[in-house]
Design goal:
Elements lengths: L15 E2 L3 E5 L4 E5 L4 E2 L2 E2 L7 H15 L8 E3 L2 H6 L12 E4 L3 E2 L2 E9 L1 H9 L3 E2 L2 E2 L8 E8 L2 E2 L7 E2 L2 H8 L1 H24 L2 E13 L2 E5 L8 E5 L15 H8 L14 H19 L6
Helix pairs in contact: 1-7, 4-5
């Protein structure tokens, strides 16, 4: 099946377009369509990963349901027949990649939980002599070391360019202590619960990011959750600190891009067919292992 890079819903104005999702305003709710676009280094690649939007939507739906007792979330329905009933005409290409959600005002802090040190956190740790996000970590940590306990490493959501890492106290300054403590505690509890489930499936959840939004009824979990786009998933059977891990996420794409000669300035390049196919297989494998069944593609 060909990739879906851009969606169009009959009878509705053009969507608000993010890197990988299109959001349609239905008045009392929003319709979120996960396309097959893929981004890396804050740029969208010229081509996508077929079925990626379906896999991520269905994985998010699983996690939203699995973690509903931790905090409220924005999902109203992921049932396509119900969603289709709200549209003017049948649009089968949107099946499996659509979610009807509550409206919320996004809290402008990216909430990241980490149980292992790698990527940008490792770079910051090495440059700052063991201090990251205002936290002092043990000395001697190497790539992919497990942390003594999961940590909250927030970042600002930049309008342009890269997000900026900030300390928890900076979150307090921006949002107030009550909100800052709530989203920190929810982030760490969501990570803890998800890590336990992933571990039971032979997968390490190294880190993940969440977004929260404000509604008239209070703060809720929004966006996508615990997908291979927003998380680092490693194969527990092959885990060994001191090197890059065997992963089920888009780190595979990042690793390719690092050697491609691309200067990391938008627009992103065309991904070769073998990279596309291998990435698709990794996403399907992550879904299969975590959810325990095949994605509906």
């Amino acid at each position: 099946m060909p990739e879906l890079l851009h969606s169009a819903v009959f009878g509705l104005p053009a969507p608000r377009t993010g890197k990988v999702r299109d959001v349609y305003d239905l008045g009392d709710s929003v319709l979120i369509i996960a396309t097959d676009r893929i981004s890396a280094f804050d740029a969208v690649m010229a081509n996508g990963i077929p079925d990626k939007g379906r896999i991520l939507t269905q994985m998010s739906s699983f996690w939203f349901s699995h973690l509903t007792d931790v905090c409220p979330n924005h999902v109203l329905s992921a049932d396509f027949e119900f969603i289709q009933s709200k549209l003017e005409k049948p649009q089968p290409e949107l099946m499996g990649r659509s979610m009807l959600c509550k409206k919320a005002k996004t809290i402008p802090v990216e909430c990241v939980a980490r149980g292992y040190i790698t990527g940008s956190l490792l770079k910051e740790y090495n440059q700052a002599g063991g201090s990251v996000h205002g936290l002092d970590l043990p000395s001697g940590l190497i790539d992919s070391s497990m942390l003594p306990e999961p940590i909250f490493t927030p970042a600002t959501k930049a309008e342009e360019g890269h997000d900026e890492n900030i300390s928890f106290e900076e979150v307090v300054n921006r949002l107030g202590r009550e909100t800052a403590e709530l989203i920190r505690d929810w982030t760490l509890e969501l990570y803890s619960r998800a890590s336990q489930h992933a571990a039971s499936k032979g997968i390490i959840l190294a880190d993940t990011k969440f977004e929260f939004g404000e509604t008239a009824d209070g703060i809720i979990l929004i966006d996508e959750v615990l997908t291979p786009d927003s998380s680092r998933y490693w194969d527990a059977a092959m885990y060994a600190p001191g090197k890059s891990q065997s992963s089920f996420d888009k780190q595979f794409v990042r690793d390719y891009l690092e050697t491609s000669g691309w200067d990391k300035n938008p627009p992103g390049p065309v991904l070769p067919a073998e990279i596309v196919q291998k990435t698709r297989e990794k996403y399907i494998d992550a879904y299969r292992r975590i959810v325990g069944q095949e994605p509906d593609l």
